Automatic annotation (TrEMBL):
Residue ranges of the TM segments: none
A molecular function GO annotation: oxidoreductase activity
Domain Galactose oxidase-like Early set span(s) in chain numbering: 448-553
SUPFAM superfamilies reported for this sequence: E set domains, Galactose oxidase, central domain
CDD domains attached to this UniProt entry: E_set_GO_C (cd02851)
GO cellular component: extracellular space
Gene3D superfamilies hit by this protein: Galactose oxidase/kelch, beta-propeller, Immunoglobulins
Residues of the Glyoxal oxidase N-terminal domain: 49-439
Matching InterPro entries: Gal_Oxase/kelch_b-propeller, Gal_Oxidase_central_sf, Glyoxal_oxidase_N, GO-like_E_set, Ig-like_fold, Ig_E-set
Lineage, uppermost ranks: Eukaryota, Viridiplantae, Streptophyta, Embryophyta, Tracheophyta
Species annotation: Capsicum baccatum (Peruvian pepper)
Protein name as annotated: Aldehyde oxidase GLOX
Predominant place of localization: secreted
Keywords (A to Z) from UniProt: Oxidoreductase, Secreted, Signal
């Protein structure tokens, strides 16, 4: 059993409280703490370095195969025999698990080759496609197709030599035609597609990735990639961005450098999100938010034992503007290695990370225990709200994803080259928590919608109109009802790939029963707006979301 020194989190919370009290009065509006934490499992057997929610409400997690023996055995006496493994040639423990949200339990899965610092995305049929990794896994593609039932036996399928380029610290994104694009990685200044066709069975050079590579630091790994509403890809690396027409391999727009010029990608790790796309707007705007990170040179300084403070700034840019400019905002808490989660009501949760140092082995300091809510539609200067702190430091290799019930799953943290539970500042963390935003408070129960129809797993077509029926037990404000759909993202290293929210266009809310209401709305008409696949659909009333249902758009 591992032990945890509890005095460190207490002192950190005390320091954060003192910091809040010392801030100028005009900043107090940012500090109405909310949200609650709950420990789900103290030990899932592995440290959740990568995480993806699938459409059966199960979360696939994995770390790396060369950490040594994990804390969970493979089933039925299975063992992994791999002469290429750098730590254990024969390993009878699992390095991937499936977490069942409904039963709060895990099932061990088997990966044969090394999946460390890899990338992935859920595909149009609901499968998880994972790409690359380290050592013998760097050219592999692995597929996990979800299954259900108490005796589920689905597991990883590995496809060797499926990638042309070794992919380590790359980023994936689902495209309008259902393919994935894999961008960058260490010493990989190009992109490729999966699955491949005759015309795409090669590499496509992307000099932008070489131009953004800082000597001895890189600062452009795990680039932030978002599908713009015109079908091109917004790619942010280090401190600047371009718009790529991936079909013709052409840069169609170069964006200004983020104000201040500080790096925001690994190892100077910040986080980013494409803000919700509003289908009700006549012209759909696409905005990107980039927060946190560290100053240039922080990685090298941390390697020498000097841990510089993290950045406390966010940059927001409208990438669809003809002349886009960065608008800078100040976070209430500086943060590197934070994770961004788009909540069902359109707010953004920023959680996990450190207040000093960088990503990398044992290079982070000053855990940031308090999440922050960012409200995109509030006025500039009053968009942040600090939430109640957790007690478990979530440092390098932490993860988080949104669940269908509106909670946020939080796990991982292992800043060591192996599993290390004692004698270190931040022990390897095997626990799993849930953060519940304040919209899940019991006081919101009467205002919370509950979807009656359609049933979950509904298949819809682009541009299709449907009616959604829901109940609200208390009084309703009809002009404060909206319908949102969220693509579940693949999260690792503070990068949530393929995360996407749309606010759907619809008609007026009408009463059809004592507590029952109906709204007619229309799904987006193009894969450029919503790539094909599974989304969580929510009814939101006064910023309080229902439990979601799964829909598949195709």
């Amino acid at each position: 059993m591992k032990t945890r020194i509890t005095i460190i989190p207490f002192l950190i919370q005390l320091a954060q409280l003192l910091l809040l009290l010392l801030l100028p009065c005009h900043r107090y509006t940012a500090y109405a703490a909310g949200g609650t934490w709950g420990l789900l499992m103290s030990n899932i057997g592995i440290s959740a370095m990568h995480m993806q929610l699938l459409n059966n409400d199960r979360v696939i997690m994995y770390d790396r195969t060369d950490f040594g023996a994990s804390n969970i055995s493979l089933p039925d006496g299975k063992c992994r025999n791999n002469p290429n493994d750098l730590t254990l040639k024969v390993d009878c423990t699992a390095h991937s698990v499936e977490y069942d949200v409904s039963t709060n339990s895990v099932r061990p899965l088997m990966v044969q080759t090394d999946v460390w610092c890899s990338s992935g995305s859920a595909t149009s049929d609901g499968s998880l496609i994972q790409t690359g990794g380290f050592n013998d896994g760097e050219n592999f593609v692995r597929v996990f197709k979800p299954c259900s039932g108490k005796t589920s036996t689905c597991d990883w399928k590995e496809i060797g030599s499926a990638l042309i380029q070794s992919r380590w610290y790359a980023t994936n994104h689902l495209l309008p035609d259902g393919r994935q694009i894999i961008v960058g990685g260490r010493d990989a200044f190009n992109y490729e597609f999966y699955p491949k066709t005759a015309s795409t069975n090669n590499l496509f050079g992307l000099p932008f990735l070489q131009q953004t590579n800082d000597p001895r630091e890189e600062n452009n790994l795990y680039p932030f990639v978002f599908l713009n509403v015109d079908g091109n890809l917004f790619i942010f690396a280090n401190n600047r961005a371009v718009l790529l027409d991936y079909m013709t391999n052409t840069i169609v727009k170069t964006y200004p450098q983020i104000t201040g010029g500080d790096p925001r990608n690994y190892p100077s790790t910040g986080s980013a999100a494409l803000l919700p796309l509003n289908m009700q707007d006549e012209t759909i705007r696409a905005e990107v938010l980039v927060c946190g990170g560290t100053k240039k040179g922080s990685y090298l300084r941390a390697q020498g034992g000097k841990f510089l403070g993290a950045l406390n700034t966010c940059g927001r840019i409208t990438i669809t503007d003809p002349n886009p400019k960065w608008i800078m905002e100040t976070m209430p808490v500086a943060r590197t290695m934070g994770d961004m989660v788009i909540l069902p009501n359109g707010d953004v949760l920023i959680v996990n990370g450190a207040g000093a140092g960088t990503a990398g082995w044992e290079l982070g300091r000053s855990p940031v225990l308090s999440p922050v809510i960012y409200r995109p539609h509030d006025s500039l200067g009053s968009r942040f709200e600090v939430q109640n702190p957790g007690t478990i430091p979530r440092m390098y290799h932490s993860t988080t994803v949104l669940l269908r019930d509106g909670r946020v799953l939080v796990g991982g943290s292992n800043p060591h080259g192996f599993y290390n539970f004692t004698g270190v500042l931040f022990p390897t963390e095997l626990s799993l928590e849930a953060f519940s935003p304040s919209y899940l408070n019991s006081g919101s129960a009467n205002s919370r919608p509950r979807i009656i129809s359609p049933a979950s797993q509904r298949k819809v077509k682009y541009g299709e109109r449907i009616d959604i029926r829901f109940t609200i037990r208390g009084s309703i404000k009809r002009d404060l009802v909206k319908v949102t759909m969220v693509a579940p993202g693949f999260n690792t290293h503070s990068n949530t790939m393929n995360q996407r929210m749309l606010v759907l266009s619809g008609g007026k809310v009408k009463r059809v029963g004592i507590f029952t209401y109906q709204i007619n709305f229309i799904f987006p008409n193009s894969g450029k707006l919503a790539p094909p696949g599974y989304y969580m659909l929510f009814v939101v009333h006064q910023d309080i979301p229902s439990e979601g249902i799964w829909i598949r758009i195709q």
